[in-house]
């Protein structure tokens, strides 16, 4: 297991497919990374090194998968830029070659309803399509001596139109892709801090949207490193730095505060590192341009309530430049 893990990491670390920029801007299926649980969204994805029962944490780092018995969760998100989107997950124990681990099955869907087609003049054509995208993911995580290892395989399916013949696209078909996530979580003896390393959405499209079309486009992959620091038993600071395939390096900062045993509040934000550096320089140099927002969410906040083995979570995200807001609500439990 340790040897296989090492080879896996070396493969992606030196992969020309990840670091190459020949197909810049052509990444596909990026919508899958936006399907998040309310807790993950409230913390802006910064909690990828902190163990949690949240089923959405697995989508940020497969090594975070934990629990006992049977678990299930569902979340829905909507807002000014989203309609009917969400994820559902179930998890259970797993044993392989005497190593006890855990497995989670996750289904994600993006359904933005009916879309009215317009002609070149911006007039309605009378044709309506219903695009829909979905994926199925399976995650397995195993504790090892010095770290915990997790891996996710994901099948993605994307239909642009319910009846492509009506909209004049010759040979249109459903686009498909395969992705893989991996994660390493350091088994620290301390509960006050921790570290993690992960790769997300590593893969490619294997079926184009048009028959005979160009295939093999890479997914919106990223490599990330994260940490957390528990200032006291109630307050936890979280930090992640991610390097997307086709975007600038981003920093994610979040905090989670426990008001009482069942009640938590959360907040988070993420920005391109170059924008943060530009903002700091502008404080000392009047000629330096100030920061630009490098992410479509300005900030996020949320709350969670735990009762027995159940959890109810909510998050609110404000979008940039007056584009509105997003809301997510989720329910999960262990049995």
Question: Could you characterize the architecture of this molecule?
Answer:
- The structure is a single chain.
- By secondary structure, this protein is mainly beta.
- Helices cover 10% and strands 50% of the residues.
- It has helices at 2-13, 16-19, 38-42, 273-284, and strands at residues 71-79, 84-96, 99-111, 115-118, 124-129, 132-143, 147-159, 175-186, 193-207, 222-230, 235-244, 250-258, 263-272, 297-307, 310-319, 325-334.
- It has a 14-stranded antiparallel beta barrel with strand order 1-2-3-6-7-8-9-10-11-12-13-14-15-16. It has a two-stranded antiparallel sheet with strand order 4-5.
- Strand 14 and strand 15 (310-319) form a beta hairpin.
- The protein is globular.
- The two termini are 30 Å apart.
Structural class assignment:
mainly beta
How far apart, in Å, are the first and last alpha carbons? 30 Å
User: What does the overall shape look like?
Assistant: globular
Helix content: under 10%
Q: Using only CA atoms, what is the Rg?
A: 21 Å
User: Main sheet?
Assistant: 14 strands, antiparallel, barrel
- Kindly state the mean pLDDT as a whole number? 83
Beta fraction: over 45%
Order of helices and strands: HHHEEEEEEEEEEEEEHEEE
Total number of strands: 16
**Runs with pLDDT <50, length 5+?**
11-21
* Spatial arrangement of strands, main beta sheet: 1-2-3-6-7-8-9-10-11-12-13-14-15-16
Helix count from the secondary structure assignment: 4
